[in-house]
Design goal:
Layout (H helix, E strand, L loop, with lengths): L1 E3 L2 H7 L6 E6 L5 H10 L5 E6 L19 H11 L3 E3 L3 H4 L12 H4 L3 H4 L3 H16 L5 E6 L3 H13 L4 E6 L19 H7 L1 H15 L5 H13 L3 E9 L15 E9 L2 E8 L1
Parallel strand pairs: 1-4, 2-3, 2-5, 3-4, 5-6
Antiparallel strand pairs: 7-8, 8-9
Helix pairs in contact: 7-8, 10-11
The structure holds pantoate.
């Protein structure tokens, strides 16, 4: 695996590749990331991963400084997964001057849910992803794989690619889960052993909400409130548990039924904020 730190090194490494398949990450890799890399491998003539902890997508009180940097383990895991090129820019390589030119996603999609609780998050994500696409996929384009665990992020990126006519094909990767059902996440490492045992309750709550929604003769937001209260009673601090349309993340309309919907949730357990979703 070739490691490129600068954009010039990356472009040289990819000079003869016509259609890279790209998996952007912030490192601290787990089996979910590695599954995305394996999924990417047959989709291009070079498999490229990036590791970059993107300051722009963290709020001042969030965990940018403490976000785990696990370089050696990440490199070993990517090598074993068959990654050809790792792009690991330092901050000064990707942002040599303050990144004042930013990509602002459509507020109708990006200011709700995660964007409501983490204002500016999707501006930071869209800006870095646009820049990473320019570096890794360039003018000739390629494929990029994003996990469905970050459901809204995947939708924002798809929308950006469509609206800017970027020559990038976005492929969704299914959420990897631990045997008990907990969605794999870099932030699971923050959980104490007791919290780790409890953490699966978020995915269970979303499944239960989806079941209740499907079974109700006329489902209503009261079901969402009940799901939040149930999680709260177990010691969580939920930001949202909600049912939305998969197509635009708006509240379901009459006629939206099974196959059209997704239950999305974000909640804090102790000091760790987890997100998950369940399509139904
Ligand atoms: O999902 C992530 O890990 C990040 O948001 C991404 C897409 C790598 C951008 O920093």
């Amino acid at each position: 695996m070739l490691i490129a730190h600068t954009i010039a090194e990356l472009r040289e490494a990819l000079a003869s590749r016509r259609h890279p398949a790209f998996v952007p990450t912030m490192g601290n890799l787990h089996e979910g990331h590695i599954a995305l890399v394996r999924q990417a491998r047959p989709l291009g003539d070079a498999t490229v991963a990036s590791i970059f902890v993107n300051r722009l997508q963290f709020l001042p009180h969030e965990d940018f400084d403490s976000y785990p940097r696990t370089w050696e383990g990440d490199c070993a895991a990517l090598r074993a997964a068959g990654c050809d090129v790792l792009f690991a820019p330092r901050e000064a390589d990707l942002y040599p001057e303050p990144q004042t030119f930013k990509v602002h996603p459509d507020p109708a999609l990006a200011d709700m849910l995660e964007g409501h609780f983490r204002p500016g998050f999707f501006v930071g994500v869209s800006t870095v992803v646009m820049k990473l696409f320019a570096c890794v996929l360039g003018a000739s384009g390629g494929t990029a794989v994003f996990g469905k665990k970050d459901y809204q992020q995947l939708m924002v990126i798809r929308h950006m690619v469509r609206q800017f006519a970027l020559p990038v094909q976005i492929v969704a990767g299914e959420t990897s889960r631990a045997p008990d059902g907990l969605a794999l996440s870099s932030r699971n490492g923050y959980l104490s052993p007791e919290e780790r045992q409890e953490a699966v309750a978020l995915s269970q709550a979303l499944r239960a909400l989806a079941q209740a929604w499907s079974a109700a003769p006329s489902p209503s937001p009261a079901l969402e409130a009940q799901a939040m209260q149930a999680l709260q009673a177990r010691g969580w601090q939920p930001d949202y548990l909600t049912v939305r349309r998969r197509s635009d993340l708006m509240a379901p309309a009459a006629g939206d039924g099974p196959g059209d919907l997704v239950a999305l949730g974000a909640a804090r357990l102790g000091s760790t904020r987890l997100i998950d979703n369940h399509e139904f």
